[in-house]
Amino acid sequence: MPATFIHQGDAIDHVPDTDLAPGAVVVLADLIGVTTRTIPAGHLGALQLRGVFDMPKATGADTGIAKGQRVFWHPANQVVTTDPTDAVALGHAVRPATDDDAVVRVRLVAA
Hints:
Largest sheet: 5 strands, antiparallel
Order of helices and strands: EEEEEEEEE
Radius of gyration: 15 Å
Helix content: under 10%
Number of helices: 0
Number of strands: 9
Distance between the termini: 25 Å
Mean pLDDT: 96
Low-confidence stretches: none
Shape: globular
């Protein structure tokens, strides 16, 4: 059977086990999605797999991120990082973030 086109894939269906607020980052193995609306537990919602989002990052020495730099999501710390250790590929920074910035603008790239 040949492949059958379903849709562009910028978002996928998701039924969470717990309530998800807008902006929740959901890790599904090597795939990351972000909610844009509240998704109650057990209800069908959507995860954005592509797009540009402001996302939290750590602050302090050596936490700056250059524009264009590849970034990762650290699930345990709930922050964007440039260190792939214990993290999942997220996308690229599209605006520089200094050591003092608490957020970085990221372009998600679906795995």
